[in-house]
From TrEMBL, chains A, B:
Residues 74-258 form the ABC transmembrane type-1 domain. The keyword Cell membrane applies. One of its GO terms (biological process) is transmembrane transport. Keywords: Cell membrane, Membrane, Transmembrane, Transmembrane helix, Transport. This is ABC transporter permease. InterPro entries: MetI-like (IPR000515), MetI-like_sf (IPR035906). PANTHER family: ABC TRANSPORTER PERMEASE, ALKANE SULFONATE ABC TRANSPORTER-RELATED, MEMBRANE SUBUNIT. Pfam families: BPD_transp_1 (PF00528). It comes from Pontibacillus chungwhensis BH030062. Belongs to the binding-protein-dependent transport system permease family. SUPFAM superfamilies: MetI-like (SSF161098).
TrEMBL record, chains C, D:
CDD domains: ABC_NrtD_SsuB_transporters. This is Spermidine/putrescine ABC transporter ATP-binding protein. The lineage of its organism: Bacteria, Bacillati, Bacillota, Bacilli, Bacillales. Keywords: ATP-binding, Nucleotide-binding, Transport. Pfam families: ABC_tran. GO terms for molecular function: ATP binding; ATP hydrolysis activity. It comes from Pontibacillus chungwhensis BH030062. It comes from the Bacteria.
Amino acid sequence: MKQSPSTDETRFQQHLKKLQKEKRSIMIWQLIIFASFFSLWEMSSRLRWIDPLLFSSPTKISDLLLAKATDGSIFMHIRVTLLETVAGFLLGTVLGILLAATLWWFPKLSKIIDPYLVILNAMPKVALGPIIIVALGPGYFSIIAMGAIISVIITTIVVYSAFQGVDRNYVKVLRSFGANRFQIFKEAILPASFPTIISTFKVNVGLSWVGVIVGEFLVSQKGLGYLIIYGFQVFDFTLVLASLMIIAIFAAIMYQLVERLERKLIRG
Amino acid sequence: MKQSPSTDETRFQQHLKKLQKEKRSIMIWQLIIFASFFSLWEMSSRLRWIDPLLFSSPTKISDLLLAKATDGSIFMHIRVTLLETVAGFLLGTVLGILLAATLWWFPKLSKIIDPYLVILNAMPKVALGPIIIVALGPGYFSIIAMGAIISVIITTIVVYSAFQGVDRNYVKVLRSFGANRFQIFKEAILPASFPTIISTFKVNVGLSWVGVIVGEFLVSQKGLGYLIIYGFQVFDFTLVLASLMIIAIFAAIMYQLVERLERKLIRG
Amino acid sequence: MTFLSLNHITHQYFSKQGFTKAIEDVSLSIEEGQFVSFLGPSGCGKTTLLSIIAGLLTPTEGTVTIQQQPRSQTNIGYMLQQDYLFPWKTIQENVLLGPHIQGNITEMKKEKAIQILEEIGLESVVKSYPSQLSGGMRQRAALARTLMTDPKLLLLDEPFSALDYQTKLKLENLVSQMLKQYRKTSLLVTHDIGEAIAMSDTVYVLKARPGRIAKTFQVPGHLRTLTPFETRQHADFNDLFQTIWKELDQLETESIN
Amino acid sequence: MTFLSLNHITHQYFSKQGFTKAIEDVSLSIEEGQFVSFLGPSGCGKTTLLSIIAGLLTPTEGTVTIQQQPRSQTNIGYMLQQDYLFPWKTIQENVLLGPHIQGNITEMKKEKAIQILEEIGLESVVKSYPSQLSGGMRQRAALARTLMTDPKLLLLDEPFSALDYQTKLKLENLVSQMLKQYRKTSLLVTHDIGEAIAMSDTVYVLKARPGRIAKTFQVPGHLRTLTPFETRQHADFNDLFQTIWKELDQLETESIN
Amino acid sequence: SQSPTTIKVAEVTRSIFYAPQYVALEKGFFEDEGLDVELTTTWGGDKTMTTLLSDGADIALVGSETSIYVYARGASDPVINVAQLTQTDGTFLVAREEQPEFKWEDLNGSTFLGQRKGGMPQMVGEYVLKEQGIDPKEDLTLIQNVDFANIPNAFASGTGDYVQLFEPTASIFEREGKGHIVASFGEESGHVPYTVFMTKNSFLEENPEEMEKFTRAIYKAQQWVQDHSAGEIADVIQPYFEDTELDLIETVVDRYKSQGSYAEDPVLDKEEWSNLKPIMEEAGELPADVDHKTLVNTKIAEDVMK
Ligand SMILES: Nc1ncnc2c1ncn2[C@@H]1O[C@H](COP(=O)(O)OP(=O)(O)OP(=O)(O)O)[C@@H](O)[C@H]1O
Ligand SMILES: Nc1ncnc2c1ncn2[C@@H]1O[C@H](COP(=O)(O)OP(=O)(O)OP(=O)(O)O)[C@@H](O)[C@H]1O
Ligand SMILES: [Mg+2]
Ligand SMILES: [Mg+2]
């Protein structure tokens, strides 16, 4: 009557096989979607079901990308935008956390500026572009600032409320050992809010892309946002769509990186 | 030795007085910040510490607003933008929830389109503006679509993961009573995710403002975004700043309304 | 007459890395109207076993029969390890959940709900939400919900573990009395030796990794007629307690080494 | 000699709408080396009282003196109602938290930590994180953390409430033995009548709304010398249990009416 | 009579530069022709052309270079220039310092804040510089990275010695002492097809009558503008520029009018067209050599003038 270990193992192998089969089926479907999307696009464009001028076509886009990869210019644009995005992201996140720490340290200050924070937060930051140009001049600084400003307030608010949400009992433990305010922050508040801080990263990386692209729309000579604007200006939708695709891919990669970081840090 | 109830009451009154004093002090500080910000602005502008052409001044802005309030035109612009924002918000939120429900209903589908969702989510939606014009033409539809598109994917992702995060044991309870899939969704999944859904409202209302303002930058005859871009066209920064202020105030009001709704619904 | 019988039940949980064998080759049969307890260390597969009996989990091997028939779902009442009252429904709505799902909410059912709620002392909170109730009240409401569909078989997964001692003793009495009154066949999972002895006719002690029946204890007949509270005070209680304690202790030492 | 004395302590919690009187006019004194328990229904102000003694809360009326001096914080060890180990620190780091905060981590302290961890059977998980430990192990680690700063007075707030019955009995034995060994003055808060009797010299029963001392019970001398586990088995245990049970039951009925 | 036909027009921006269009709207010249014109502003040439191509508008008012771009990228339904509205560049050279004795050579070694790459203002700007013997790449520092709407505030906040600006910003700057108009690109460039009403070939073929009516109304407005003073024009178009002071509108109209920026008639002739091509070629943005007859329909304009 006793089940031999080999049957346990066999059942497990069967289970693994089922999993693998399912995974393969999912990948096949993903490929089907991918292939049919692009071939439908190509076909519609060739058969003029859609206006090839406005919607270009996958072959045109890949030709363009190939040409731009051969002369290396696309990498320059990608590099510029990536650097700006990372800089904007870091700046926004770090500033936001510092601001949140300041608010935590001075609870009265936080009560005083609360309504102003609400207004600043609700403000659609993309409308501030021109003011940033006035303040920082037309150049990289403005673009990076745009990438940062879009995330700093929301980071402040989220991280500050994480600080406030830390279980009072951790603080009690520390105070029972005679800890001072700085020690409480360092030993309990900050590490306990770590998961929230990491999860704002995920939001901020997306926001920084928005900020940087909008910034590049306003001032730039290089970068993927510039390519989009320039493409529109000379009515080259192939260039526009190619840039959009590159943006989508890199934004997705960056997002995945941050997500992987999150999983790693929060688990460990 | 027994404390008479009157002393308890006295201590409570003292406590209330202290609270009130603190509240008053906070309000005074808020007023001081408010007043000094605007008077500093006015003064710098008058004394030409800052360029009055670029930074205008509070009196100029209030004069302009007064004039536009008198002839009623500002209310028309506000109404247009508010309607667009609310429409974009509702559309994005409802679509997002419906999509999330679809994904929950077809778990395999959700696995298949997962990588596409990541890419769509990471994509900075503001870059899609002109493509939306191609699809929907110049007009309110495009603007509202911009307000919706910016929030729909993130809503889908967040709400879907809320659906997935619902404690399996609620489902177990229902299944032990023989519930079908639809009943499980209706009785457990949806109501248990309600707090998350409400909290996406808060994010979405902000995003819709961004989308609508960007949309109005692209095509518009009316609305606060129109006033900003028109203000630039004729280099009237008073108009630009006045519009920005109105946007900030209304966005903050809308955000507060949603937050109040959230507190009410989640408590009740 | 045998009411429920488990035949060589084995269950494995699979993951990508490997599998956990939660229970192995568990066979037993329970007579109608009997009260049976499962005692065992954490992770010995008690919840898994109940889920299988409730039909929420298909075992990798073995079969479950109820009254010689393959198990049908709706005549089983399953009370989970925590109360799992739906926080967005009132107590009344929660208690009526079963009929609601089964689409047969009648006036009679509603009256029955009120009646059960009265019996367990919850008549004053019928319109309240679960968050307004204490832990003990919630457990009682969950019990009422389980009883509403009039199940022939009751599965109770540590129904009293979240309670403080006094509340727990009181609730044990109440449940035991109700089950006797409604003549239910019942399966109770618990960590608490005293509870197992005080409430049941038979106590199964399980061992872990994988979960198996290690030993079976029959509670002496004269203890069964007492209320759980009285049983705990009875002199014979302590002997049985000691025996089971030693058995469990030994199992634990074994499983560590 | 009186070690700790509370003089007419009253505490109110304020909110915008009104106030809650958590405790009212509590006076008592405890001798050095004594073990005292507080028993009482939920919400009777037990945690509040400990917080006041620990100096984490200033009472709205009354004073606390330790050895006739106003209370100084660092010679008190306070173990909260749950373990509150810091999840991002290893067990060793958690146990060394006190010295770390006080800026005096020495080799000696580290050795002492290892020694305490060995005594309570945690030497194998020194480098583990709290999430990798079972509930009982976590409670033991929290106890070790509390003992590290060598407090003269120990405040224990329901240290065993989250544990299953067996683990709880074992830990009671361990703690009782350690405290006797280190000659600590200790205050234990609990819901469990058995626990209070088994561990302490004096049991204070509190009533709620507002919290006051309702009755004081002295545990007979011959029970005090036994381990908690043995005490629970002792014939005299049941009598005291019944007495206190009735007292509590009556308090509860009173507070409902 | 019949109910009026609705014509959707997308304009590239709202500007006093397009005064005759607003005159036609305000004076009811379209209604006289039985047309109901719906005007949308689609900020920027790209969006305007996109709107036209995706049938969001029947007629677009936009720089004629876009029609060449569209044609060169292989449009199946090319966009045809029908009625010219402005015939010179509309930008001015504004200097930070007052320069009564301005000569174009003064630009050598300076920092020049130009319009963004790919648009007509930038191309004309560079062309004019070259005509004046200045190599924009070598002889001065050319800033070309700022979006159209943000050029004025970039200059106002201190970037550049010279800037290329549209009206009314140039006049505002002069009035506020922020800068001084020292030259007009419009005067230097000569006549070019600058802003033109255009439509898709298919629309033209299907609605020749509407197009003719539309052009006739524009022609009437152009004549009206020629025959009236800047002040009178300003009065008429003011409703389209609510937030701009009347005297500023008048100043700007006067400036454009006196330098002949408003085309006298809707005909886009061969000569103007051939002026456009070297400008685009110089800028490196001429994707293909396109004949006048391919993309311009002069017949309608000539018909309505009879
Ligand atoms: N969904 C699951 N996936 C994988 N393993 C599981 C799952 N549920 C339970 N297990 C594993 O199966 C074993 C038995 O779990 P089960 O929950 O049945 O134990 P239990 O006796 O109810 O424990 P407890 O007393 O803690 O409730 C454990 O080793 C557990 O880790
Ligand atoms: N921070 C607080 N603010 C307001 N009221 C509080 C606060 N903490 C406790 N109370 C109230 O004071 C009373 C005593 O609370 P306390 O936590 O001391 O009780 P307790 O005896 O420890 O209860 P339990 O056994 O549930 O832990 C309760 O009525 C409680 O609601
Ligand atoms: Mg279990
Ligand atoms: Mg407490």
